[in-house]
Amino acid sequence: MPVSSRTESRAVDQDRLVSIYYKAARIFHEKGYEATSMSDVADAVKMTKAGLYYYIESKEDLLFHIISHGLDWLDTEVIEPARALVNAEEKLRWIIRHHGQGLCRGSRVIPLLTEEVSSLSARHRQHIINRKRRYFEFVRTTLEELKTQKKLREIDTTAASFGLFGMLLWLPRWYQPGGRLTANQTMDHLLNLYLGGVMKNGSQGSSSTPILKKKKR
Questions:
Q1: What's the CATH number where 12 sits?
Q2: Quick one: residue 165, left, alpha or beta (phi over 0 = left, psi -120 to 50 = alpha)?
Q3: Which of 43, 57, 172, 215 is the most exposed place for a label (fewest CB within 10 A)?
Q4: For residue range 158-176, what is the model confidence (pLDDT) as tens digits?
Q5: pLDDT tens track for 183-208
Q6: How far is it, in rounded angstroms, from Cα 13 to Cα 210?
Q7: How many CA atoms does the CB half-sphere of 198 hold within 13 Å?
Q8: 190, 87: one domain
Q9: Number of separate domains in the chain
Q10: Are 206 and 196 in a shared domain?
Q11: Which domain holds residue 37?
């Protein structure tokens, strides 16, 4: 097979795989993971079970890759760009706004499936827990940096980190696209609410242009 054909084939397979993730996530959410059979998933993605097993090894493997897909997005679109920011307050703002906008505009069911992590095998479960813990520690470290700079109120950074994730991860349950508030307006309100609660200067005093770290040569 020519190189270009192999590349196109991999791209088509990846697109098909992502489509399977989204459709399977929806049926897992609607029926419940334990109550959903592989036949249900195959019907939802309009494939035979044999065709489905070309892409995945098992129902548990599918759940693991769906959750991992959501975390991959988080790494690429939220965490990595935030790490490139110099200013701790800008890091925090980036995390809140971009994670929140992704939850408002993206799949509502994939983030909710993180609640099914207990259904994963011990190895897969620990892998997901470790990835989530690294994100949590990044947020807490950012808050600790602000605390060192005397910019935080008298709050516990662990509690503040859990509070932030609680606020963000509840978004897919209540936010309605096409409703009274746009995703941007919603995140404006939540930014003001959170920063007003944890920062001494509230939601004010931030530069509008994030400063990126210079790459080492």
A1: 1.10.10.60
A2: alpha
A3: 215
A4: 999 999 999 999 998 899 8
A5: 999 999 999 999 999 999 765 544 44
A6: 37
A7: 26
A8: yes
A9: 2
A10: yes
A11: 1-56
